[in-house]
Structure formats: C-alpha cells, structure tokens
Amino acid sequence: MLPVLFLAALAAAAAQNDTQPARPPSPRREQFRVIYEWNVIDFEWRSPADREAYLSTNRYIPQNVLISGINFYGENLFLTVPRMLDGVPATLATVPVQQSDTAPKLKPFPSWEDNAVGNCSALQFVQNVEIDKNGVMWILDNGRVGTLTQKPNPMCPPSLVLIDLKSGKNEMERIPFPAEILNSNTTYLNDIVVDNRDGDYAYITDNSAVDPGIIVFRRSDKKSWKVRDTKSMSSMPEASAFRINGTSINLPVNIDGIALGPQFYTSDGNIDRTIYYCPLSSFHLYAINASVLRNDSIEGTDGSIRPYVVDLGTKASQTDGMKMDSNGVLFFGLIGNSTIAEWNTTVNFHVGQRTIARDPNYIQWVDRFTFDDRGNIYVVVNRLYNFVKNQVFTKEVNYRILKSFTGSKSYIFSEDLKPAGLPGAAAVPTLGASVLFIALAHLLA
C-alpha cells in the first residue's frame, strides 16, 4: 500500500493560525497520499522489439527520463518529460487518473510519431502544459533538446502548440515564437498560465540564463511580446544553494513558477487579475496585474514594468512550481523544507502562509501541481537535484505523484465577472485582491 503523508504538527499550525485574520473555513481536507511512484519511467511501446531497438541505440536511456509537469483532462493525467538529456523517447505522455497500477507505463501523446526527435512538426522538449476551460491544451515546446548536455541542440524553433482535446482529433497547431522575441539558443520556456478572457491570453515564464522574462501571447491575433524586470525575475545568490536530505546543489535559476489569481473589479470598474511569480533561486514572491502585461505597447526593455511589480515578501525556502485554485488559494512547494504549502491570497502573505504537508522522505523537490474535476489536487515530486547531478539510482523510487482532496478546482474555472454597469454586475465596483490592495497590506503589516 502506498503511504499517506502526515500534515505538519498541529501545534505549529495552531501557533501560525493565531496570527492570521479570520477567514472562511476551508473545505474538508485529506492528507496527501502517494498514488503513483516509479524507480525509472517506462513507456507503452508499440512492441517489445521496438523497446529493445530504442535501448540498443540509446534512444531510450531509462535513468535519463524525468517527469516534470502535470495536468488533468477527462480520464487522463498528462505528464511532461523534458528532454534535458539524451535517451528520452517521448516528451509528452499520459497515465490514467483511475489507478490500475502503482507504476503505470507512460503512453506518448498524441502519438509516438508526434514525439519524434528532430521532426519540427513533432514535439521536441515539453516542460509544461496548461488546459483551458474550453478543453484546449497549451503546450510549451522549447525546440532545443539536451539542455543538460555539453552541446544542447536547438533543432527546432521554440513554439506554442495548441491541441483541441474536445474534438478528439488531437491535431496540433504550432505557433513558433518570432526570433526577435526569443533566442532559440538561450530561451527556456518553463511554465504557463492561461486567461480565457478577451480572445485568450497566455503568460509564460522564460528562465533563460541571459534574458529572463515573461512572454505574453494573445491568441486572437497570435501576437507575442516579452517583458523583463531584472530585480524580480533574476536568481539571487543567497538563494542559489539548495540542500535536500543531505544533498547540496547550486542552481542559479531565474523566473520559474507562475500563477494567475481570480478576476476582480478595479477602482474604475474594469476587470483585472493578478499574476504571481518567482525565480527558482529566490525566497521572494512577486505580483503584477495582468492588465500591465497585456499592454503590447509596453517597452520590452528591462525595468519597464518595475513600477508595477509588488514584492509580497519572503517564503521559508525556494519554490519551483505553484498553482492557484478558483478561490484564490495558492499552492506551492518549499523545496529545502520538504514541504507543500498554501496561501489564501486575501490574507497578507507574511502571516497567511500555511504548511499543509511535510515529509523529508516523500516530498523531495515539489515540481508541478494540477487539479481534477472532483476536488483533488495532484503534485509531481521528482528529486530533480539528483537528476541534475547525474545521481539517479534506479533501485530507489525517484518520481512520485501525490494526491489530496481539497475541494478545490483550478484557477481556470474561477468566476467570470461582468463589466461594471451591466446587469448582474456588482453595484459598486470593488478593488478586490488587486496588487494595490496587497501592497497596502504589506506596508501596514
């Protein structure tokens, strides 16, 4: 039987909650439990002979296959398998939501052919995906493979790939990013959130070592632009050292995780949302309003958005992936603490952070989160520090998916507000959880 992970000590949680303002009671919660775990990742091959052929030609090297991203749709969990090293036969795959095996084989998605290395019509290097409320999958394909090797190969342009899952045809629409926006030799498309308002927007973190930033993509006209802010999007030296279960590693990684808050009314009656983000190598969480990034006339040079960025404060440790639910509760990992945490964004960040699970044996590098349609949250734990150091031991469990019932659903399904003045809209527009409100709370804390 796969283990259940214990919540943090009740005394510590109670002490922390004593400092928090009153807020609505949380829904009934379950402890996190392991639903899937693997020593190494294997696939649903077309035949045993095909598997042997991949092994004999080093197109499949089991210890080089790592699970990173996760998303949910229908009866499947979609897993991303970035080609950081050689020997990764597929970069996007599925496993069933309903368990039949504790270590299922991954089924390449959409097909084996659509994961062929070197075919620029196929997926090359998928770090993360998002699935919007219309059933469209948004795929980040870096195009460059072997990013942890001596000679990374930018064999295809970095692209956004769209698949309409509702149709069932799984046809890919590939939209390469313009060369003047992204450098295919240095860009690293890391994470994505999608806003289905006004023709659909995506906000994408690029943790390029030389040009970090947030890429904004507008689907209605397929236009993209990039915004930069060195202070909030760059790694910090004091946060570049990681220590997990006695293993130390130095990773000066720039902007990484990103999350999108619920809609709110601004003081002038417009509708906005807050974007939250952080570098991997940082203890800070930052916020900016989506309306700022949506302005395609804003200068892409460093510092153009600096007046609009709010530093919400510090976390106990570094964070990789994060995910917002539809009510504005942010779920995130604290890597050095072997912890999963949450924050209700209506509460000041300094006092509102709460540990919901801690276990040094099972929570070793939280990577990404997703929600299903039944109130469950899923978490990928992948011991990335061992993978980067080439210390993956195939006789140990290296990859896990954890699950907990939270009663939550994804931010994708947060309430759609009506413009002020229309029937059903709020009689008096309120500021909501805007960055301005958060900034004031920060100053008054």
TrEMBL record:
The keyword Amino-acid biosynthesis does not apply. InterPro entries: 6-blade_b-propeller_TolB-like, MRJP/yellow-related. It is found in: Secreted. Keywords: Membrane, Secreted, Signal, Transmembrane, Transmembrane helix. SUPFAM superfamilies: Calcium-dependent phosphotriesterase. The keyword Transferase does not apply. The chain crosses the membrane at residues 420-444. Residues 1-15 form the signal peptide. Belongs to the major royal jelly protein family. This is Yellow-x. It comes from Chilo suppressalis (Asiatic rice borer moth).
